[in-house]
Amino acid sequence: MGEGRKLPLNEVSFYKFLCSDILYTPKLVDYFQNERYIVLILERIAGSALGACRNDFTIQQNIDSKDILKEIKKIGKLKEYPEDINVLNRDSKLEKYFQVIYKELDTKTRQNTERLIGTLNQNVKLVFSHGDLIPPNIIKKGELYYIIDWEWAGLRPDSYDTALFMLFSGSPLQRLSQFDKLDSCRDRLELYRDVILIASREIKNWLEVKDFPVQKKYI
Questions:
Q1: 3-class SS at 88?
Q2: Lower Cβ count inside 10 Å, N or C end of the chain?
Q3: CA distance 30 to 138
Q4: What is the mean pLDDT of the chain?
């Protein structure tokens, strides 16, 4: 099965486990699949997404990031999920990304990144993770936040969803400067390790689409 069909099926299986008093998600009403498509029918949430598209790097002005970060922490408290769930190994992922991006890095960054391979996954605490927690995947309805699009869910470091959301909800460099102000229950070293992985992935993604004119508005 191709990756394009596997991801929606992953999402179907995750929605069956996401009924929880801990977290707000739309209910899976039904789904349909054939040889070409998989369509999920979800409960309509009468709210507004926190962002318009993936690379806006912003959230609605009336949103307090601290409220969202509290919701993000709840994701890792979910203890039931499919047995065949994907497990992230930061070292193997970084090594894979590095093989693609190393020529684009300056000498110092390239050497430092290469030295980190093999060190990012030591003594890591893995929890249930959304995996793509960008502003468009969070819907605000009244005082509640609903999280959608669970196809990338898996087991990841406790810090991963927080790091990803922070990087995509404002200027990445500005957001990095705010990591030290996060509450003490978040391990800052783990956040920075996730930032390295996420940044490497985004560089890889950019290199894969930069020469396609139709993709320029998304870079």
A1: coil
A2: N
A3: 21
A4: 88
Alpha-carbon distances of 119 from 77, 91, 97, 101, rounded to whole Å: 26, 7, 15, 19
- Could you tell me the two tokens for 133? 């927690």
Q: Measuring CA to CA, how many Å separate 142 from each of 22, 47, 93, 208?
A: 17, 7, 38, 39
45-218 sits in which CATH class?
A: alpha beta
Question: Which residues, at least 6 apart from 38, have a Cβ–Cβ distance to it below 8 Å?
Answer: 5, 8, 9, 12, 31, 32
pTM of the model: 0.89
Please report, rounded to a whole number, the percentage of residues in the chain having pLDDT higher than 70: 91
Both ends of the chain: CA-CA distance in Å? Answer: 29
Helix ranges (DSSP H) in 76-187: 90-101, 107-116, 160-168, 172-177
Report residue 41 as tokens.
């029918």
Which positions ≥6 away from 217 have C-beta within 8 Å? Answer: none
DSSP state of 87: B
In sequence order, the β-bridge partners of residue 41 are: 30
